[in-house]
Amino acid sequence: MRSLLLLISCSAAFAAPPFSLEQVMSRPFVESLTAAPAGGGVAWIVSAKGARNIWTASPPAYSGRQVTSYTQDDGQEINEITWTPDGRTIVYVRGGDFERTAEAPNPRSNPEGVEQAVFLIRADGGEPRRLGEGRAPAVSPKGERVAFLNKGQIWWVAIEGSDKPAQAVHARGNAHSLHWSPDGSRLAFVSDRGNHSFIGVFDPAAKSLRYLDPSVDLDSQPVWSPDSKQVAFIRSAASQDATVFGPKRSGQPWSVRVADAASGAGRQVWHAEEGRGSLFHAVVASQQLIWMAGDILVFPWERDGWVHLYSVPLAGGMVTQLTPGEFEVEHVSPSPGGKEVLYSSNQGDIDRRHIWKVAVSGGRPSPVTSGGGIEWSPVMTSDREAVAFLQSGARRPSHAAIRVGSGPVKELAPQTIPSEFPEASLVEPEQVMISAADGMPIHTQVFMPADHKPGVKYPAIAFFHGGSRRQMLLGWHYMYYYNNCYAMNQYLANQGYIVLSVNYRSGIGYGLDFREAKDYGATGASEYHDVMGAGLYLRSRPDVDPARIGLWGGSYGGYLTALGLSRASDLYAAGVDLHGVHDWNVATRNFSPSYDPQKAADVARVAFESSPMASVKNWRSPVLLIHGDDDRNVPFSETVTLVEALRRQHVPFEQLIFPDEVHDFLEHSRWLEAYRAAADFFHKHLGKS
Fold first, then answer.
1. Any bridge partners for residue 111, and if so which?
2. CATH number of 428-685: 3.30.300.20, 1.20.140.10, 3.40.50.1820, 1.20.1250.20?
3. Distances in Å between the alpha carbon of 101 and those of 149, 150, 628?
4. Tens digit of each residue's pLDDT (9 = 90 or more) over 96-128
5. Is 429 helix (H, G, I), strand (E, B) or coil?
6. A GO molecular function for this record (predicted)?
7. Whether the bond into 18 is cis, omega within 30 of 0
8. Cα separation, 29 vs 399, whole angstroms
């Protein structure tokens, strides 16, 4: 008896104390790490309870300091930060959601309206100066002007003086991907014409506009040669296939081309082989095609079924695989001087990310970071003395860090993590493999209640991420949306639920065949096998009450939540569906306007059969529906239509609607309200442990 009392006492002593949703959501989120072109400094963005600001750090101390001073949770994002060539001034964009080109969202319903505009500010602080309405700034190499986009057209403005912005190019199509030539004499860009696109080159001195090597295909990712005479780019075959959410393992091969900037004449440098890797798949990088030292071009390719980096000489010839192995490369950046490439990958640690570097001449990649953390977005400082990156852990939230030489990793701004954040009370999720209903092995992470006791049956919740091109990790995520989801899963575990985060098929991180899973999405909903597998796994656990299993997710995860409730209300007792897809025929048109269900009857039939609306008559379990009515990803009508059907069947539902809010909620307060409502809903229908 004495031993038992001691065990109970020790368990209570080590049990994590409860924390509030506000506390766990107080963590900062960092993104957009960028190295200055001179001076060795770095800049990044910190979002703290909805207030977004730019921070910088410089050698030798690398002590982070806040540069801007925005204080409100006003739904106005900051992004697209870049530097002037001397490394003394930062240009950035404020406003908008940076996902879809449309009018700037106004989530606070401000009657005065909002705008998306380009600003600049000294790196050592001061007041920001508005340059003009627009986005996607590109600072000229001489630092005298900034080109940017406004409503799909190219504008520019002088950095010094009081000149007003002016439209630099009047052209058809929507421009994007602005890139100055290294000598600053010309500006390359992509001209999107809908079903095809060109690489344009604007010469201000000659007042000329030339399109390089034009074709019927989709040209993108322009990159200049160091001598400013040539432009390399990627060409993908045009296609009338409007299918968006279905497997595409092969197609017409893409290619790398190079063109003379003066004459426009082009030639093929290299092309992908048929089969695996014939369709281009991007990494996370400012440029997918990188012109490196020695006239070597570096790009991602999936020839072996995994996203890897390859190089090819400008003159053509055989490609060299720089990153061999069964893992995937994700965040990529070149080193100053162009002799090495930095990247993040899940090599040897498939549910995390670490930083690596490799010489473009080939050779074995070498690790920059390792261990139990997660690292991404590497950049090398301009003096080549240090590598900065973003970092998190299972408990430690995202933050900027740096490693100088072979020294230890240093956090750049530990003061951004508030004292109220309950770091010590968080749990470390456990990597668990489960079997889908059709036998496919699926990676998951299990969050256990900190005070888990033998013999107790707990309520359980399965979580499904969005995307579907996403992967949840064994720690705080590198994307804002899923960083929030990780906080919510930690909170639910702290409230006494066993939480299962499911990396279902069609997600990333596990190779091309997993990502392009047979019959996924609108072509058969094969991910439903993973939804069932998750529920059956939870039901089989001796510490789970089989009558109290719920599920939740947003966007694509909302789709899978609705699919689970419409097909398996006997397994899932309740669900929370955030802005989910309920009819693929509606959602597909939002991403591919040319999609016409009436002209593709067989495709449309399968798409509908793969949708929750097709099986809504079997829906019995209660659901909480959450949606912003300015959603530019999943039409708000998806929730309107579902509610109408649920009402006809007398299915209990609750709704939380955010007027003027977008898909990835821009206001921190909206996330708190949504997650608070979700937790209360689960408490009501599943009960706490």
1. none
2. 3.40.50.1820
3. 10, 10, 18
4. 876 666 689 999 999 999 999 999 999 998 999
5. coil
6. serine-type endopeptidase activity
7. no
8. 7
Reading the block at residue 404, the tokens are 């100088």
Closest CA relative to residue 536, chosen from 575, 519, 493, 544:
544
Task: Give the alpha-carbon dihedral of 634, 635, 637, 639, to 10 degrees.
Answer: 20
Kindly report the length of the chain: 689
Q: Is the pLDDT assigned to residue 8 strictly greater than 50?
A: no
Give the number of other CB atoms < 10 A from CB of residue 151: 13
What is d(CA 321, CA 669) in angstroms, rounded to the nearest whole number? 46
Q: Which two tokens stand for residue 361?
A: 């001449």
Kindly give the pairing relationship between strand 498-503 and strand 441-447.
antiparallel
CA torsion 570-574-575-576 (nearest 10°) is 170
Residue (of 45, 124, 91, 64) closest to 402 by Cα position? 64
* Spatial separation of the C-alpha atoms in residues 155 and 14, rounded to whole Å: 60
DSSP string, 159-176: SSSSPPPEEEE--SSEEE
Query: Residues 279-293: what's their mean pLDDT?
Result: 97
The verdict on whether omega for the bond into residue 335 sits within 30 degrees of 0, i.e. cis, is no
**Is residue 445 a contact partner of residue 431, using CB atoms and an 8 Å limit?**
yes
In the three-class reduction of DSSP (H, G, I as helix; E, B as strand; rest coil), residue 202 is classed as: strand
Query: Measured between alpha carbons, how far is 470 from 284 in angstroms, rounded to an integer?
Result: 12
Whole-model pTM: value is 0.96
For tokens 């309405």, what's the residue?
133
Backbone angles phi, psi at 203, to 5 degrees: -110, 100
> Per-domain residue ranges for the chain?
428-685
Distance CA 399, CA 28 (A): 8
Alpha-helical segments (H) within 592-687? 601-609, 637-648, 668-685
* CA 615/CA 551 separation, integer angstroms: 17
H/E run at residue 398 = none
DSSP 320-387: EESS-SSS-EEEEEEPTTSSEEEEEE-TT-TTS-EEEEEETT----EES--SSSEEEEEEE-TTSSEE
Q: Are 410 and 401 in contact (CB under 8 A)?
A: yes
pLDDT in tens, 189-247: 999 999 999 999 999 999 999 999 999 999 999 999 999 999 999 999 998 776 789 99
CB 527 within 8 A of CB 474: no
Strands (E), 438-573: 441-447, 458-464, 498-503, 544-554
Three-state SS across 18-48?
Answer: CCCHHHHCCCCEEEEEEECCCCCCEEEEEEE
CA dist., res. 246 & res. 516, Å (int): 7
DSSP string of 254-268, one letter each residue: PEEEEEETTT--EEE
